[in-house]
Amino acid sequence: MSFRVEGMAEPVDLPSRLGILPFRNKVLLPGAIIRIRCTSPSSVMLVEQELWQKEEKGLIGVLPVRDTETAAVGSMLSPGVGNDSGERRLKGPADVLDSQKQDGKNPQELIHWHNRGVAARALHLSRGVEKPSGRVTYIVVLEGLCRFNVQELSARGTYYTARVSRLDMTKAELEQAERDPDLILLSRQFKATAMELISVLEQKQKTVGRTKVLLETVPVHRLADIFVASFEISFEEQLSMLDSVDLKVRLSKATELVDRHLQSIRVAEKITQKVEGQLSKSQKEFLLRQQMRAIKEELGDNDDDDDDMAALERKMQSAGMPPNIWKHAQRELRRLRKMQPQQPGYSSSRVYLELLANLPWQKGSEEHELDLRTAKERLDCDHYGLVKVKQRIIEYLAVRKLKPDARGPVLCFVGPPGVGKTSLASSIATALNRKFVRISLGGVKDEADIRGHRRTYVGSMPGRLIDGLKRVAVNNPVMLLDEIDKTGSDVRGDPASALLEVLDPEQNKTFNDHYLNVPFDLSKVIFVATANRVQPIPPALLDRMEVIELPGYTPEEKLKIAIKHLIPRVLDQHGLSSEFLQIPEAIVKIIIQRYTREAGVRNLERKLAALARAAAVKVAEQDCTVQLSKDVHQVTSSLLDARLAGGAEVEMEVIPMAVNGQEISDAFSSASVLVVDEAMLEKVLGPPRFDDREAAERVATPGISVGLVWTSFGGEVQFVEATAMVGKGDLHLTGQLGDVIKESAQIALTWVRARAADLKLSAAGEISLLENRDIHIHFPAGAVPKDGPSAGVTLVTSLVSLFSQRKVRADTAMTGEMTLRGLVLPVGGIKDKVLAAHRYGIKRVILPERNLKDLAEVPSAILAGMEILLVKRIEDVLEQAFEGGCPWRQHSKL
Ligand code: ADP
């Protein structure tokens, strides 16, 4: 279906022309370019007759611009579409397919013709032949030139022609119109908007440079059409642009359309920017994740994050948390799920959840029916002696058996190091068939150590109790609070107050760890505490505990412990047995007497271990020799085999079997028994550290006395040295002394001064000893802090010795508090002190009379070899401390 238009009022100066009428939703505007595929016979005919022949017939053919599904409409502003532009690029022309389907129908019925159109000239024509039908088709590229009005439409053959009249102004008319100020204003406005559009487009694509030139060279009325034609607008808007014959109307309409297009570009740009931003972020994450996955795969650790989360959730589910805590945990898990692993707080949140999942909310060791006899056997088997202690433990267990949820007191073992406090606690756990966890409280000064840090702190973690429970993974272990006397309080809070809550059966059901932030039930835990001394334990805490004292061992006890327990254990730990190493009793005794001087057996165990190590080296070396000899055999025999296999002549080698056999048996014989003798002892442990003569050597001059003190390491022998020099009568005290011991020294000096005459100290020849003299008292070892009142009698003795210039008996040690009036008051730690004296080889011990009852604790074997002198007054002490009695008595005798 085609048209031919006849009789244009003012023919366009072109060799071949067509008139394009709007059709469906497409309009050709002047200045725009259109590409038409002519496939129908009518349009082919039109092209052939009106264009192909290139005759100037003064006619214009008319084609309706049709909409078909395949029509692609270019919306790009194309440079070079103007008349005056030298270069004609067909960028983004509108494609219109003239489909054959419609050709069979009556065009009048089908098409409602618009009465205005645009005259167009052909820029390009190409002819094609369809195979196999041989049908001829054309593709015509046309450029819109000017608007026309259809005056009359008539058919010529299969296509139409039209009589038209030109609508656009002529040049002269235009020049006239352009002087109109309104039009000038409008065109300026249009150009400004167009300029803006161009610069926006320029930012997007660098090729728009030429459009600017267009703006300056092309007349504004054409520009309006060109601009509008280059973007997608509705058919109605296109039609109204075509109908805008009036320049002012056309310009204002175009300005509006260009402006709208500009806005839409801007909005679109904003959206793409946003999308791009998001995209690039997620792309980056994606990339990193891919990399991480690759790295994990490479490391063979390709479990996914999601799998991790699922595993964590499963673990949490099986942890058996109470419902409210489970809710809390789920909330936390949801929060974690929303986080990226790189996000701050992710790992801390994760660690927290892991802790929640790992805590034994429900899980406990299975409790068997407690058999007291086996428990007793167990305790006896692990520990020698300690009869009273074991009895108390059995009582404790018996109560638990009768009433499993009994809220008995917490047992607290008090005693010097190495006496078996920890191992007793672990035996309790074994007897009860429970797990054992040790929490060391030594040096804990921060409450947060017990109760945990709040999660807001960087590097926060749960307290030691919760951590301990996590480690054992049961909620009913035996928990040893080790060295409970070593906690101290400072600005960071008081750990003892947190411990109070832990040990209180009423409160520990809902123990609140700051890190955990949810209550945990500690009521099933059996707490056992240990301490070296009772005094430093805060009274409130002590009130919750039952103190069981474990004084040090006697040398005999130590010997038994060594033989029955320590040696077998040490040998076992070193991969030896009594077949390889034997430590005779006499040697153990020497170790106890000369190499260790302690209340417990820890050092003894260490020394035995040193012997075992040395023996292990010997045995291992011999093993090596045996191995070597065997190797010799192997090499030779394989050599022989090889020769035999090779079929070569065999030359027999004589192996000196006797020598080899000798070596092997030697190695085995020496490996079988290594008996430790004194020589080996000295080689391994060095020369003896202690001997019995120490006291005698140290008390060689007047002014020195031997005291007995009680430290956290058990009983100790404490020498007191006093000396005098020229001065103003001051008292100097050294040796890291506490206030109480300093006061004891004052009391002692006052007493001696007050009794100087009675004691006839001045009569001893040194008249001015007490006048114009400074007294200096020193307690070696200078680096060990000392305190307590029990040095009173020792101080007096050393002062009297100094002033009387008489030596104190080296075989006598003493302890006792003294009043200003000279009364001797009882002191603590008698058993430890007597044992210490025994260790030093001291034969006589002066004790306050009121400590007589404490002697019952001292093993009779020790007492049998010692002289215990009970005193009431300081004069009695002096009487016993000096050879030949007290100087005062001498005087009174005189
Ligand atoms: P503490 O906790 O009192 O400092 P330990 O319990 O650690 O001391 O004991 C130190 C070592 O001495 C352990 O190997 C322990 O088995 C051993 N031991 C202590 N007393 C005895 C004893 N009466 N019988 C057997 N071994 C003991």
How would you sum up this structure, described in words?
- There is one protein chain.
- With 894 residues, the protein is α/β, with parallel strands linked by helices.
- The chain has 5 domains: 114 residues, LON domain-like (Archaeosine Trna-guanine Transglycosylase, Chain: A, domain 4); 105 residues; 174 residues, P-loop containing nucleotide triphosphate hydrolases (Rossmann fold, 3-Layer(aba) Sandwich), CATH 3.40.50; 67 residues, Helicase, Ruva Protein, domain 3 (Orthogonal Bundle), CATH 1.10.8.60; 189 residues, Ribosomal Protein S5, domain 2.
- The protein is built from 31 helices and 26 strands.
- The strands form 7 sheets. The protein has a 6-stranded mixed β-barrel. The chain has a 5-stranded parallel sheet with strand order 10-11-14-9-15, with helices on both faces.
- Strand 23 and strand 24 form a beta hairpin.
- Helix 10 packs antiparallel against helix 11.
- The radius of gyration is 56 Å and the shape is elongated.
- It binds adenosine-5'-diphosphate.
- Adenosine-5'-diphosphate (ADP) binds next to helix 14, helix 19 and helix 21.
- Pfam families: AAA, Lon_C, Lon_lid, LON_substr_bdg.
- One of its GO terms (biological process) is protein import into peroxisome matrix.
- Its main location: other.
